[in-house]
Design brief:
This protein has two helices and eight strands; from the N terminus they run H-H-E-E-E-E-E-E-E-E. The chain is mostly beta strands and 135 residues long. It has one domain: Lipocalin.
Length: 135
């Protein structure tokens, strides 16, 4: 199973967005992804960083780190479920993430390459390769 996952990851890394088949969105998105967005407040620039794991079984888990300007960072863990389907264009996926106890949140993701997606607000997420020494 691990060898198959590594072979699939190597194949996806070389994927050209024009060759992406959005019928396989769930398989493509299964894995761990990092995303960080800049924030701005009266105190100055900050950041919100997320590492999210999407299981093939539909399980979702994430760590969200909020790093406001001039304040100590905070982290929170989230869990729930997720699903994915073809998006409105051939280079996109439609996702639904449900954090336990909350309503689902839908998003359209544009596939930029085998390891990068962009949401419709411009946020970019990159695939994380998790190894035994660097989770």
């Amino acid at each position: 199973m691990i060898a198959f996952a590594l072979a699939a990851a190597a194949t996806l890394a070389s994927l050209d967005a024009s060759a992406f088949d959005n019928k396989a969105c769930k398989t493509f998105l299964t894995g761990t992804w990092d995303m960080a967005v800049a924030t701005d407040s009266a105190r100055g620039a900050g950041r919100i960083a997320t590492r999210a794991s999407y299981g093939a079984n539909g399980a979702f888990a994430a760590t969200v780190r909020v790093e406001p300007a001039d304040l100590a960072p905070t982290e929170m863990a989230l869990s729930g479920s997720w699903s994915a389907a073809p998006g409105p264009s051939t280079d996109s996926c439609r996702t639904d993430v449900t954090v336990d106890g909350h309503a689902p949140v839908s998003a359209t993701l544009i596939v930029l390459d085998g390891n990068t997606v962009r949401d419709t607000n411009g946020g970019v997420a990159t695939r994380v390769t998790v190894t035994a020494t660097a989770p």
